[in-house]
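From the shared-data thread, chain only:
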Amino acid sequence: MNAEERSEFMADIAAAIRELAAQSTLSDDEQRWVRMAIKREAQISEFRKAIIEKTLGGLMWAAIVGVGYFVLDFLKSHGFRP
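Structure, as tokens:
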């Protein structure tokens, strides 16, 4: 393969790639739908993260109150009068 054939071959490949790229582009409606789907997934992810954070915070407060109750009960049973 000489230089002329090589450059012609590369031009053919570039044309084929451009043709495939032109065929695979999305319409405006499809692009808008894809953007909305990506945005929705991000919102769902943020919502799940918020739920997890709030649940863990509530569990931590419940644990603190529970430990405090047990400490208070222990102190009352050993003579402490509040």
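The mean pLDDT is 90.
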